[in-house]
Amino acid sequence: MEKQLQWTLFLITLSGVMACTDLWKKVFLFPKPSQDSYVTLIPLLNTRLQNFTLCLWTYTELMRGYSVFSYATQDVDNEILLFKDNIRQYSLTIGGEEITFPVSENSHNPEHICVTWESASGVAVLWINAKPLVRQVLKVGYTLNANAKIILGQDQDSYGGSFDINQSFVGEIGNVCMWDYVLPPIEMKEKCSCGNVLNWRNLNYEENGFMVTLPNLWV
Ligand SMILES: *[C@@H]1O[C@H](CO)[C@@H](O)[C@H](O)[C@H]1NC(C)=O
Ligand SMILES: *[C@@H]1O[C@H](CO)[C@@H](O)[C@H](O)[C@H]1NC(C)=O
Q1: CA–CA separation, 30 vs 219, rounded Å?
Q2: Distance, CA 38 to ligand 1 centroid (Å)?
Q3: How is residue 186 annotated by DSSP?
Q4: Residues contacting residue 162 through CB under 8 Å, at least 6 positions apart
């Protein structure tokens, strides 16, 4: 009997760690600014990356700057940081180097964002609502480290921590997907939801603090 109980507890623990959830037509809502509400995304691949594509949706009324996607490694806090500096500018940091993209003002409509980066050329592309902005080049030849901590809702200023309430995300975020390669341009318009590094339809994540998962009302 005792053995059976132990086995059951072991299975429950195992499923708690390995659980992947299909978040099709769901979003995470961060209802208010905070220093301790966030979601940790556990990647399906834990390797060094030379290329990537990241896509997601955001819906927010924030006017101040906020973290959209924070990917830290032990040596580099901003291994990948996608940050909205203000209503007219995004910044993208890779391997600690930052570039900025001017964007047109979006009066509180949901925004579909994709970022691609390729090490060999260093070319980074930011797509906003299926439109590519002027391309830029950074970190040519760089390789992103493995063992990333990936966090939504906060900007990591250290590996897995050092959050700033004034950089927290407030609003809805969904369809977060990441690939270890550069997707062809046609796919940036298709709003797909299944990457091989992060897959919204098979997502392993941990919720922290005050946030909720809700049906998507706006896509
Ligand atoms: C990254 O993409 C380039 C093509 O641009 C390819 O040659 C290289 O093998 C890729 N690296 C990895 C680790 O997949
Ligand atoms: C956040 O911003 C507010 C208003 O600008 C400021 O008063 C506060 O000190 C800031 N908090 C932190 C932790 O930076």
Answers
A1: 18
A2: 32
A3: H
A4: 77, 156
CB of 47 closer than 6 A to ligand 1? no
43 vs 48, 120, 134, 144, 216, CA distance in Å? Answer: 12, 23, 29, 14, 23
**Nearest CA among 181, 153, 151, 201 for reference residue 42:** 151
For 128-151, the pLDDT digits (tens) are 999 999 999 999 999 999 999 999
The closest residue, in CA terms, to atom 6 on ligand 2 is: 166
The full DSSP string for 42-99 is EPS--S-BSEEEEEEEEE----S-EEEEEEE-SS-TTSEEEEEEETTEEEEEETTEEE
Reply yes or no on domain 18-215 having CATH 2.60.40.10: no
β-strands 171-179, 212-215: how paired? unpaired
Nearest CA to ligand 1 atom 2: 51
The SS3 assignment for 20 reads coil
Q: Is the CB of 207 under 6 A from ligand 1?
A: no
Q: pTM of the predicted model, to two decimals?
A: 0.89
Instruction: Quote the ligand 1 centre to 180 CA distance (angstroms).
Output: 9
Per-residue pLDDT of 146-188, as tens digits, reads 999 999 999 999 998 999 999 999 999 999 999 999 998 888 8
